[in-house]
Write a structure and sequence with these properties.
Tyrosyl-Transfer RNA Synthetase, disordered N terminus, Structural Genomics Hypothetical 15.5 Kd Protein In mrcA-pckA Intergenic Region, Chain A, 3 domains, 20 helices, 6-stranded mixed sheet, 461 residues, Rossmann fold
Length: 461
């Protein structure tokens, strides 16, 4: 009987292995790509490998509603969840509808500003949409068509289980499993306690709630794995301790590295501004350009972290780069796959059109851009709305759009060939502006003075 059971178990394992040829179900193999920084407990690699190879497991990552969109800095966690999904595992994204009221102190030097309920709900909706779109784009455009259908992403909101919990009972049943000495030793707590601003009890208690989240998911979905950024190790270890005391089951945490540029800047920041996943906050063009501008010294590492190319394919990409570095081939591969993942093929097409419009001076590409896309594309460019009146000249247009400080400057620069409308050089100051010659079908004119000074005119007719 024992032998028969072993044969049956082996058969199930063999059949599951055959259906998962494209991705490795043992996600610890992702360490070869630099995707993991730490495992908790740190002696659990063998047990984790055994679990992953034995049957599909369940993993979760949490997202607190601090903004109405996720940003590029969240992508590594999302992509890690996608790797789990590709390996045949069950994936949960936890939205912090309740913990958003508290605020995670990890990585913070001051208390988070308390958010109003309506703001939290708006942020929850935005983040939920981000996640749904990315997972849908992955399956539609990146996951091989001949592979099995992926197990669907499960999105849960921790507000649904906290709303009916009695606070006294929660402190009594859950709080008694935590030890103050251990809680105080967490790095996120130590950093804040030793700072000038200190730490509120609200944020100090955050680790209790994140721990209970894991316990709840373990009971509901047998979720034995939690992943998070490198700053989440304290919260993950607290959850492990709570589960060890209450559920008495083995659970495991994995942290991802903090990704920085060669200069040490936090990944996902551009001139102090986040690169958002919501196309209304950051256009597909801006996201595409962010990755296309990746430095040669960073690009191979980012291909391993943020794309689904195999290590062999990445090696080939880098070999081509060495042959023709001026073509920026790996940067293009990185930008195209990530833009497709975040915005789909339609978003990538828009990004490529905008790139043509800006760098290849393609007038036809400008026609397909909306005023919002143009404003995002030419960030910082002044925008004016003008009424198209008969007889307005090129000189008058330049002055009304405030392209020049004085009329004499305008005349001199225009006549010298330094003024452009929709990438076309204008030299005649008395030429009349017409819809057919100077205004795009989307009722926009893109003005340029010199090489880099852009102005956007929205026309009212």
């Amino acid at each position: 009987m024992l032998l028969l059971n072993n044969v049956l178990q082996f058969s199930k394992l063999f059949l599951w292995t055959q259906t998962r040829q494209y991705s490795n179900r043992n996600i610890l193999k992702l360490s070869e790509r630099g995707l993991y920084q730490d495992i908790f407990p740190n002696t659990a690699a063998f047990e984790i490998t055994r679990l992953l190879n034995r049957s599909p497991q369940c993993v979760y990552a949490g997202f607190d509603p601090t903004a109405n969109s996720l940003h590029v800095g969240n992508l590594l966690v999302i992509i890690n969840l996608l790797h789990w999904q590709r390996g045949g595992h069950n994936v949960i994204a936890l939205l912090g509808g309740a913990t958003g009221y508290i605020g995670d102190p990890s990585g913070r030097s001051t208390d988070r500003i308390a958010l109003e309920p309506e703001v939290i709900q708006e942020n929850i909706s935005g983040i939920k949409k981000n996640l749904e779109v990315v997972f849908e784009n992955h399956q539609k455009y990146i996951w091989p068509k001949n592979e099995d259908v992926l197990k669907p992403l499960r999105i849960v909101n921790n507000e649904t289980w906290y709303r009916d919990i009695n606070s006294i009972k929660f402190v009594s049943d859950i709080g008694r499993n935590f030890r103050m000495g251990t809680m105080l030793l967490k790095q996120s707590v130590q950093t804040r306690i030793n700072s000038q601003v200190g730490m509120s009890f609200t944020e100090f208690a955050y680790q209790i709630f994140q721990s209970y989240d894991w316990l709840h998911l373990l009971k509901e979905y047998d979720c034995r794995f939690q992943i998070g950024g490198s700053d989440q190790m304290g919260n993950i270890s607290a959850g492990h301790e709570l589960i060890s005391r209450t559920a008495k089951k083995d659970v495991y945490g994995l942290t991802l590295p903090l990704v920085t540029t060669e200069e040490g800047d936090k990944f996902g920041k551009s001139a102090g501004n986040a690169i958002w996943l919501n196309p209304e906050k950051t256009s597909p063009f801006s996201l595409y350009q962010y990755f296309v501008r990746t430095k040669d010294t960073d690009v191979e590492r980012l291909l391993k972290l943020f794309t689904f190319y195999s290590l062999g394919e990445i090696k080939d990409i880098m070999f081509k780069h060495k042959q023709h570095p001026e073509q920026r081939y790996p940067q293009t591969c990185l930008a195209e796959q990530l833009t497709t993942l975040v915005h789909g093929e339609e978003g990538l097409a828009k990004a490529l059109k905008a790139t043509d419009a800006l760098y290849n001076k393609d007038v036809n590409a400008l026609v397909d851009l909306s005023s919002v896309e143009l404003e995002q594309m030419f960030q910082g460019a002044p925008v004016v709305t003008l009424l198209l009146s008969p007889g307005i000249t090129i000189l008058e247009l330049g002055m009304k759009a405030k392209c020049f400080p004085t009329e004499s400057d305008a005349m001199r620069i225009i006549q010298a060939g330094g003024f452009y409308i929709n990438h076309q050089r204008m030299k005649k100051i008395d030429e009349i502006v017409t819809e057919s010659a100077h205004i795009l079908p989307n009722l926009i004119s893109l003005l340029r003075v010199g090489k880099r000074n852009y102005y956007i005119v929205k026309w009212q007719t």
